[in-house]
Amino acid sequence: MASIKDVAAEAGVSVATVSRVLNDHPSVSSDARTRVLRAVAALGYRPNAVARSLRTDQTRTLGLVISDVLNPYFTELARSVEEEARALGYSVIIGNADERPDLQDHHVRTLLDRRIDGLLVSPTDGGSPLMLDAARAGTPMVFVDRWIPGVEVPVVRADGQSAVRDLVAHLYGLGHRRLAIIAGPAATTTGSERVRAFRTALAEYGLSLPDAYTGQGDFQAESGRRVTEGFLDLPEPPEVVFAADNLMALGALDAIRARGLRVPDDIALAAFDDIPWFVHTDPPITAVAQPTGELGRAAVRALVDRIEGRPPQSVTLPARLVVRRSCGESPTTTVATTTATAASTASTATNRSMP
Amino acid sequence: MASIKDVAAEAGVSVATVSRVLNDHPSVSSDARTRVLRAVAALGYRPNAVARSLRTDQTRTLGLVISDVLNPYFTELARSVEEEARALGYSVIIGNADERPDLQDHHVRTLLDRRIDGLLVSPTDGGSPLMLDAARAGTPMVFVDRWIPGVEVPVVRADGQSAVRDLVAHLYGLGHRRLAIIAGPAATTTGSERVRAFRTALAEYGLSLPDAYTGQGDFQAESGRRVTEGFLDLPEPPEVVFAADNLMALGALDAIRARGLRVPDDIALAAFDDIPWFVHTDPPITAVAQPTGELGRAAVRALVDRIEGRPPQSVTLPARLVVRRSCGESPTTTVATTTATAASTASTATNRSMP
DNA sequence: ATCCTCCGTGTAATCGATTCCACGAGGAGG
DNA sequence: CCTCCTCGTGGAATCGATTACACGGAGGAT
Known about the structure:
Number of domains of chain A: 3
Number of helices of chain A: 12
Structural class of chain A: alpha/beta
Distance between the termini of chain A: 58 Å
CATH topology of the largest domain in chain A: Rossmann fold
Helix content of chain A: 40-55%
Radius of gyration of chain A: 25 Å
Shape of chain A: elongated
Order of helices and strands of chain A: HHHHEHEHEHEEHEHEHEHEEHEEE
Oligomer: homodimer
Strand content of chain A: 15-25%
CATH architecture of the largest domain in chain A: 3-Layer(aba) Sandwich
CATH class of the largest domain in chain A: Alpha Beta
Number of strands of chain A: 13
């Protein structure tokens, strides 16, 4: 592959001049510039990003470590992150932690070794020493979706509190009183926060959240199935199951269907995270929708601010309730207006939104 | 950040010795080795992958350019690719082309600039000059899922021909005679191949595929919706719609539901590509399932073979039909045995498989 | 005419690793 | 006791870029 030296030789100038042309430095004669450009074209020269990074100490690359690529929520997040990064002139390397702290560490280490300019993380656990060290050592870093308390790192996330309250209101209005939750790992902020928001909202309606109605999941489908089976085995099963993410909702649906029960007649189901498929499940699933794309873009902007020396800002965006049919037909909301919030691959034709 | 010089100083040896210890070169005294190791630990030193790559001319990184990250099929592919690559000591940088040739080129260019060791591509179009040049210039490359005819690059893909024949047999057995297809872009091999396989299978049953029953899609949900609406507007609409990928099937489902029609009573639906959600749609969708994980792993193995000087091999794996309820209740298959092929996030509890 | 400023350009140092080559010490063999 | 290996080690070149610095020439001011 042609190097800058070859270009210099071909154009009859020094490598310095070639470099100046390539980085459009002002003091280059137009004669030299055209000769260099011609040589570049003739040789099909492309600058070696590795060499450039070594010298300039910047890679124009962002690392993104997410908890689970197979989760459509994170896929969409990754997509919007890449999009915004590209717009700002950065590339993104994605690391999939698969909800495993060891894998998360592997990716963080690899990304740091490659000297990425900044790191976007949705931490799987309470924070490994490696990540804390990196943050303390000054690696530009932003947490997205989940975060680690007590670390000086900006956080970009959605606040589900009011949407969860809307959900509980919706459920209460439908006559449901025994509500259960499939929680995420307590080590993740989203895991514990969603339970807390749910419990708080229940309290407002004089309802409590007994231990038997709090199942411990891990954000994977299988755990949703297992926990739901536990609920169904109770002497008095809950009337509603609220899954703290979309994959556990999928597992719950599996478990319910395996018993030959129907949603929502036998048991209602709701989920945190909305995805295109929820429109087409049987029945369509009521969910708390996060502004995923906006989250990804805001996270990149915060990180790039930090990298380029501007003060980064934490961002919290509101989630909103999307009512469908999985909790029962609501007489009070059937007249609500249809909002057409077109996600890239989603149809929202059968959605009804609550403010 | 500490460099190899700092380590050398701390350990009281030369940088050459440090390098030798790090790459466990044989001729290093055990005394020097322990001193270096101690220094490395004390400084928290990590080798700079950028500098190493510049010198050794290898990045131990693979590039993966896929057509659409939001498509669960490609997400799963990406995941298995990363997994196998990691096992072989490589990292993966994913580029999402979003079915856009310009974006595909952007990513190929960026990856080439970073001097990745090899490229895994699922081409969006017939092949840009850039990619053809790269292939000709000797960049190790492997096509996965889709490929470009006439280029000397190994291909790893699934063969859907026999599964499509099984599908047509299934549909014919159910009494369907007017079968339509939502095709993918003709520029992609998967786009044209699936139509051809379908047409061939139809011919075996004495059925033809009229132009009116061949809709042109682009592998995105919206096109599935549009094409399906066209089908439904025909004076004699088809009895079955076969979508050439899962997203277009989603769009088709949207369109059908928007008309107030029911699947499979009013119209049957089948899809190429199986995904976890197809079990839970209303009704569960009959699909041709690809061995996605195996495909990803085989592609990485082929690419790494090529990179490390072994002759790479093209691989073709068979797809298989998974019968569910979206084409009607089949009296002949209701007694078929249940196969439990557990995908990572999928339940196959309600699947019935045909050989 | 002389001096000073720019302007365009080239030389060379530098980034952080790997690796070829030379060198000195020590042991084995004659 | 001399020679010849072998082994461990360090010096220095190298990868491909960027960039500080020096330098020569042109042009303006005095």
